[in-house]
Amino acid sequence: MTSEERQELKRGIEEAIEAQKTLIASLSETSKPVAPDNAIGRLSRMEALNDRAVSEASLNAARLKLSRLETALGKVDQADFGLCVSCDNPIPPGRILLMPEVTLCVPCAEKD
Ligand SMILES: [Zn+2]
Protein backbone atom coordinates (compact mmCIF):
# COMPACT_ATOMS: atom_id res chain seq x y z
CA MET A 1 0.00 0.00 0.00
CA THR A 2 1.42 3.42 -0.89
CA SER A 3 1.28 6.18 1.73
CA GLU A 4 -1.30 7.93 -0.42
CA GLU A 5 -3.51 4.84 -0.45
CA ARG A 6 -3.04 4.54 3.29
CA GLN A 7 -4.14 8.15 3.81
CA GLU A 8 -7.16 7.56 1.65
CA LEU A 9 -8.07 4.42 3.55
CA LYS A 10 -7.63 6.28 6.82
CA ARG A 11 -10.00 9.01 5.66
CA GLY A 12 -12.47 6.35 4.54
CA ILE A 13 -12.35 4.70 7.96
CA GLU A 14 -12.77 8.06 9.71
CA GLU A 15 -15.79 8.84 7.55
CA ALA A 16 -17.25 5.41 8.25
CA ILE A 17 -16.76 6.02 11.99
CA GLU A 18 -18.63 9.32 11.77
CA ALA A 19 -21.44 7.69 9.80
CA GLN A 20 -21.64 4.90 12.36
CA LYS A 21 -21.83 7.38 15.24
CA THR A 22 -24.67 9.23 13.51
CA LEU A 23 -26.47 5.93 12.97
CA ILE A 24 -26.01 4.94 16.62
CA ALA A 25 -27.36 8.31 17.76
CA SER A 26 -30.51 7.93 15.67
CA LEU A 27 -30.99 4.28 16.67
CA SER A 28 -30.60 5.22 20.34
CA GLU A 29 -33.58 7.51 19.93
CA THR A 30 -35.85 4.74 18.66
CA SER A 31 -34.74 2.12 21.20
CA LYS A 32 -35.88 4.06 24.24
CA PRO A 33 -38.00 1.98 26.64
CA VAL A 34 -41.68 1.66 25.76
CA ALA A 35 -43.72 3.28 28.48
CA PRO A 36 -46.02 0.67 30.09
CA ASP A 37 -48.85 3.13 30.64
CA ASN A 38 -49.09 4.66 27.23
CA ALA A 39 -52.49 4.62 25.71
CA ILE A 40 -51.62 2.99 22.41
CA GLY A 41 -53.40 -0.27 23.18
CA ARG A 42 -52.10 -3.78 23.71
CA LEU A 43 -51.45 -4.72 20.09
CA SER A 44 -49.68 -1.46 19.33
CA ARG A 45 -47.62 -1.95 22.44
CA MET A 46 -46.56 -5.39 21.21
CA GLU A 47 -45.57 -3.78 17.94
CA ALA A 48 -43.68 -1.07 19.74
CA LEU A 49 -41.80 -3.68 21.77
CA ASN A 50 -41.04 -5.59 18.61
CA ASP A 51 -39.77 -2.48 16.87
CA ARG A 52 -37.65 -1.78 19.88
CA ALA A 53 -36.10 -5.26 19.77
CA VAL A 54 -35.29 -4.74 16.11
CA SER A 55 -33.68 -1.36 16.69
CA GLU A 56 -31.75 -2.73 19.67
CA ALA A 57 -30.32 -5.44 17.43
CA SER A 58 -29.37 -2.80 14.85
CA LEU A 59 -27.87 -0.70 17.60
CA ASN A 60 -25.72 -3.58 18.82
CA ALA A 61 -24.59 -4.32 15.27
CA ALA A 62 -23.76 -0.63 14.73
CA ARG A 63 -21.78 -0.49 17.97
CA LEU A 64 -19.82 -3.59 17.01
CA LYS A 65 -19.04 -2.13 13.60
CA LEU A 66 -17.94 1.13 15.22
CA SER A 67 -15.54 -0.64 17.58
CA ARG A 68 -14.10 -2.64 14.68
CA LEU A 69 -13.63 0.55 12.65
CA GLU A 70 -11.89 2.18 15.60
CA THR A 71 -9.60 -0.83 15.95
CA ALA A 72 -8.83 -0.64 12.23
CA LEU A 73 -8.12 3.09 12.50
CA GLY A 74 -5.69 2.39 15.34
CA LYS A 75 -3.79 -0.09 13.16
CA VAL A 76 -3.93 1.72 9.83
CA ASP A 77 -0.38 3.09 10.19
CA GLN A 78 1.15 -0.32 10.79
CA ALA A 79 3.15 -1.63 7.87
CA ASP A 80 1.20 -4.87 7.62
CA PHE A 81 -2.24 -3.27 7.89
CA GLY A 82 -4.48 -4.17 4.98
CA LEU A 83 -2.37 -7.15 3.99
CA CYS A 84 -3.87 -10.61 3.85
CA VAL A 85 -2.58 -12.71 6.78
CA SER A 86 -2.55 -15.76 4.56
CA CYS A 87 -0.90 -14.64 1.30
CA ASP A 88 0.41 -11.10 2.09
CA ASN A 89 -1.45 -9.57 -0.84
CA PRO A 90 -3.19 -6.25 -0.20
CA ILE A 91 -6.86 -6.45 0.79
CA PRO A 92 -8.96 -4.00 -1.30
CA PRO A 93 -9.78 -0.85 0.75
CA GLY A 94 -13.48 -1.24 -0.08
CA ARG A 95 -13.45 -4.63 1.58
CA ILE A 96 -11.73 -3.23 4.67
CA LEU A 97 -14.32 -0.45 4.96
CA LEU A 98 -17.16 -2.93 4.64
CA MET A 99 -15.64 -5.45 7.05
CA PRO A 100 -12.97 -3.68 9.13
CA GLU A 101 -12.21 -6.88 11.05
CA VAL A 102 -11.28 -8.71 7.85
CA THR A 103 -7.78 -10.23 7.73
CA LEU A 104 -8.01 -12.23 4.51
CA CYS A 105 -8.16 -11.13 0.89
CA VAL A 106 -11.10 -12.27 -1.22
CA PRO A 107 -9.44 -15.34 -2.83
CA CYS A 108 -8.12 -16.56 0.56
CA ALA A 109 -11.47 -15.96 2.27
CA GLU A 110 -13.17 -17.98 -0.46
CA LYS A 111 -10.74 -20.85 0.01
CA ASP A 112 -11.99 -21.46 3.55
ZN1 LIG B 1 -4.86 -13.75 0.64
Describe this structure as you would to a colleague:
The chain has four helices and no strands. The protein has helices at 3-30, 42-75, 93-98, 106-111. Helix 1 runs antiparallel to helix 2. Bound molecules: zinc ion. Residues 84, 86-87, 89, 104-105, 107-108 line the site of zinc ion.
What's this entry about, in short?
With 112 residues, the chain is mainly α. The chain contains four helices and no strands.
Radius of gyration: 19 Å
Q: CATH class, please?
A: Mainly Alpha
- The domain count comes to 1
Number of helical segments?
4
The fraction of residues assigned to DSSP E strands is under 5%
The overall average pLDDT, rounded, is: 89
- What structural class do helix, strand and pairing data support? mainly alpha
Describe the main β-sheet briefly.
Answer: none
Sketch the topology as an H/E string, one letter per element. Answer: HHHH
- Low-confidence stretches at least 5 residues in length (pLDDT < 50)? none
* CATH fold group: Four Helix Bundle (Hemerythrin (Met), subunit A)
CATH architecture: Up-down Bundle
Which distinct ligands sit in these coordinates?
zinc ion
CATH homology-level superfamily: DksA, coiled-coil domain
How many beta strands in the DSSP annotation? Answer: 0
Overall, the morphology is: elongated
